[in-house]
Write a structure and sequence with these properties.
Layout: E1 2-9, H1 15-29, E2 33-39, H2 43-50, E3 54-57, H3 67-84, E4 88-92, H4 94-106, E5 111-115, H5 126-140, E6 145-148, H6 151-159, E7 168-170, E8 191-196, H7 205-213, E9 220-225, H8 231-240, E10 247-251, H9 256-261, E11 265-268, H10 277-284, E12 289-292, E13 307-310, H11 315-326, H12 329-346, H13 349-365
Parallel strand pairs: 1-2, 1-4, 2-3, 4-5, 5-6, 6-7, 8-9, 8-11, 9-10, 11-12, 12-13
C-alpha cells in the first residue's frame, strides 16, 4: 500500500504530530510505502527522517488563515499528491484537514481525515462556531472516512449533524510500549508530580498551581514540561506564591518517558481536550492520573480506579484529589498498576494500527467510497 500522511505543522510538539510519527513508522515497518507532507521544520521532521520516512515540505502550509498562502499550499499539495499517486491519503489537524481533502478529492484520491478534536467545540464565539461548523459540514462530504480519536468527538460530530454515522468511526489513540526500566514507582516519597503540556490555553496550569499552593504542608515537587505563551505569567505566580523551590519549569523536552518514569503522579488540568496521549503515556508508565473531566479523558481514566477525574475549573475537588494521593503511597501504587493494565488492554499501538488498517482497507475495497457525497444535500446546521 502507498500511503501519504498530511499534517499542518511538524515544528510543534503535540499529540497529532506524535500520532502521525508512530503511524507512519508502523506502516513502514509493515512494508508499506510512506510519505509525510507537512509545513514547518522541527524535531519531528528529524525523527521521521531518522526512521527512514520521506518527508516533503510545504512551506506555505500554516495554522493561520492566509488566503494567498492557503491557495499556494493547495496547489503544492495537489501537485505532490499527483506525482506520488498514493492509494490513500491520511490527513491530520484542522488546516491540513481542509486543504488536504480538497486537494485529494480534486484528483480523485480517497482521503481519510483524523480529527484530534474539533475547533468548534469550545473557546470561540458563536459566530466562529457556526462558521467552523459550516466548513466541517462541507468538507466532510469530501472524506472517504472520518476517524475521531475519542467517542466524545464522534458524538459531537453526530450531534451537530455534519457527517453521517456510517462515515465516522472512533479509533482511540494507542502508544508503543516502553522498556520496563522506564516504568514509574508511584509509592516513592517525596512525591514528584508532573504535567506535560503546552503552557497556554486551553490548559489550566494556573488552577493546578493554586491547588498546590494550598498543599504546602505535604512533601511534593511539581515539574511542568512544556513551553508556551503563559510561561512568564505562570513563573510570576510561582514567585508570588513562594513555590519557587518546589515548582520547576522544564521547557520542551524530547525525553517524556524518562520524565514520567521519575514521577509518582501525572496530572493534566485543562478546559478542553480530545484524547490526550500524555494520559496514555502516563498509564503506560504505571502512574496514577488526575485529569480534568473534559473531552475524551473519561474514556481513558477510570475515576477512583486508575486515578481521578476532576470537574472543569473545580479548585476544591482538584486540591482534595491531589491531597488524597499525596497522603497514600499504596493508593498511588494500586491506581498506577490498574492504569498500566488498562493501557495494555485498550491503548496499545498494535490495537490502534489494526483498527486503522481496517478503515484503510474498507475504503479501498469499495470504489463507491472513493467518490464524494452529493454536495447538494441539506446543509442546515
Amino acid at each position: 500500500m502507498k500511503i501519504v500522511y498530511v499534517i499542518t505543522r511538524l515544528d510543534e510538539i503535540g499529540g497529532a504530530q506524535k500520532h502521525v510519527h508512530e503511524l507512519a513508522k508502523a506502516q513502514k515497518d509493515l512494508g508499506n510505502e510512506v510519505t509525510v507532507l507537512a509545513g514547518g521544520r522541527g524535531p519531528f521532521l528529524s525523527d521521521l527522517v531518522e526512521d527512514g520516512i520521506e518527508v516533503l515540505p510545504i512551506k506555505s502550509l500554516g495554522r493561520e488563515i492566509k488566503p494567498v498562502s492557503d491557495c499556494l499550499a493547495f496547489f503544492k499539495l495537489r501537485k505532490l499528491l499527483k506525482d506520488l499517486e498514493p492509494d490513500i491519503v491520511s490527513i491530520h489537524s484542522t488546516k491540513a484537514g481542509v486543504i488536504g481533502r480538497l486537494a485529494a478529492r480534486s484528483i480523485n484520491i480517497p482521503a481519510i481525515f483524523t480529527a484530534h478534536g474539533w475547533v468548534f467545540s469550545g473557546g470561540i464565539s458563536k459566530l466562529q462556531e457556526r462558521a467552523f461548523l459550516l466548513i466541517e459540514k462541507f468538507i466532510a462530504l469530501l472524506s472517504s472516512k472520518i476517524i475521531t480519536v475519542s467517542e466524545y468527538d464522534r458524538q459531537l460530530a453526530l450531534e451537530h449533524n455534519f457527517v453521517s454515522p456510517e462515515k465516522i468511526v472512533t479509533i482511540h489513540n494507542g502508544v508503543s510500549d516502553i522498556a520496563e526500566d522506564l516504568r514509574s514507582n508511584p509509592g516513592l516519597s517525596p512525591v514528584n508530580i508532573v504535567m506535560v503540556s503546552r503552557l497556554g490555553t486551553p490548559k489550566d496550569h494556573k488552577l493546578l498551581l493554586q491547588a498546590m499552593a494550598a498543599l504546602t504542608e505535604h512533601q511534593w515537587y511539581l515539574h511542568l514540561v512544556g513551553d508556551g505563551p503563559l510561561l512568564g505569567e505562570l513563573q510570576d505566580y510561582v514567585e508570588k506564591a513562594r513555590l519557587a523551590e518546589r515548582v520547576f519549569f522544564l521547557g520542551t523536552r524530547q525525553d517524556i518517558p524518562e520524565q514520567l518514569s521519575k514521577a509518582q503522579i501525572s496530572v493534566l488540568i485543562s478546559k478542553k481536550e480530545g484524547l490526550p496521549r500524555v494520559i496514555l503515556e502516563s498509564m503506560r508508565a504505571g502512574l496514577p492520573v488526575i485529569a480534568s473531566d473534559v473531552g475524551g479523558t473519561s474514556e481513558m481514566v477510570e475515576d477512583g480506579k486508575t486515578g481521578y477525574l476532576v470537574p472543569e475549573s473545580n479548585l476544591p475537588i482538584l486540591r482534595d484529589r491531589i491531597e488524597a494521593l499525596l497522603k497514600a503511597p499504596h493508593l498511588r501504587e494500586a491506581m498506577g498498576d490498574e492504569g498500566r493494565r488498562r493501557y495494555e488492554k485498550h491503548f496499545t499501538l498494535d490495537r490502534m494500527l489494526e483498527e486503522t488498517m481496517m478503515v484503510y482497507k474498507s475504503v479501498l475495497s469499495d470504489p463507491s467510497k472513493h467518490l464524494p457525497d452529493r454536495i447538494d444535500q441539506d446543509c442546515n446546521i
